[in-house]
Write a structure and sequence with these properties.
- It is built from four helices and three strands, in the order ααβαββα.
- It is α+β, with helices and mostly antiparallel strands.
- It has one domain.
- It has a three-stranded antiparallel β-sheet with strand order 1-3-2, covered by helices on one side.
């Protein structure tokens, strides 16, 4: 029988599966099938960046994903460019 939960549980499996703290240090990383990444890995990168107030650059290279996390630019600098 279905049961109601007070809140949506954070997935411990996803949170602990990858070394996010290390990867979000600003270095450029390349991961591939040997790293046992899932098919939606690129999507997870963008979600992790959003959840941590960061941005991420990601691209595919053969079977690998190359990515780099970086801090968001200050809001004021972004607004000036839009003018």
């Amino acid at each position: 029988m279905a049961r109601r939960l007070k809140e949506f549980p954070r997935s411990a499996a996803i949170a602990g599966k990858y070394p996010w703290e290390e990867w979000m240090n600003g270095d450029v990383w390349r991961v591939g099938p040997a790293d046992k990444i899932c098919l939606s890995f690129r999507t997870m990168l963008y979600m992790k960046a959003r959840d941590n107030g960061m941005r991420v650059k990601a691209s595919l290279k053969e079977e690998d994903v190359i990515f780099q996390f970086f801090k968001k630019k200050k809001e004021a600098a972004v607004k000036k460019r839009r003018r």
